[in-house]
Amino acid sequence: MTTKAEDVKIMEKALGVTKKELSPMEYARFLAIITPKVGDSVREIRKFLR
Q1: How far is 18 from 37, CA to CA, in rounded Å?
Q2: pLDDT tens digits along 14-41
Q3: Rounded to an integer, what distance in angstroms lies between the CA atom of residue 20 and that of residue 16?
Q4: Better-scored residue on pLDDT, 42 or 34
Q5: When comparing pLDDT for 45 and 7, which is higher?
Q6: Distances from the Cα of 18 to the Cα of 4, 9, 29, 39, 40, angstroms
Q7: Cβ-count burial of 40 within 10 angstroms (0-12 exposed, 13-18 middle, 19+ buried)?
Q8: Does residue 8 or residue 47 have the better pLDDT?
Q9: Gap between the Cα atoms of 19 and 9, Å rounded
Q10: Is the dihedral of CA 1, 10, 49, 24 positive or negative?
């Protein structure tokens, strides 16, 4: 079983690789797909792009 810290590290690594491979619009769409849809997800996704 992995720890929360290990999970976060893996997610950050995966997002970094994904961000390099996708255009900004593709990356935003990818984040929209994997982000829970609670609250203002567009605002939350924009935080990742800054």
Answers
A1: 20
A2: 989 998 999 988 988 888 888 776 667 6
A3: 6
A4: 34
A5: 7
A6: 21, 14, 12, 24, 23
A7: exposed
A8: 8
A9: 15
A10: negative
pLDDT of residue 2: 76
Q: Looking at this protein, which amino acid is placed at residue 28? A: A
**How far is Cα 1 from Cα 50, in angstroms, rounded to an integer?**
33
Give the C-alpha separation, 23 to 44, whole Å: 18
Tell me if 24 sits within 8 A of 3, measured CB to CB. Answer: no
Q: Given the structure tokens 């590290």, which residue do they identify? A: 9
Quote the tokens at residue 25.
């619009």
Residue type, 22: L
What is the greatest pairwise CA distance in the chain?
34
Using alpha carbons, list the distances in angstroms from residue 8 to 11, 24, 49.
5, 22, 18
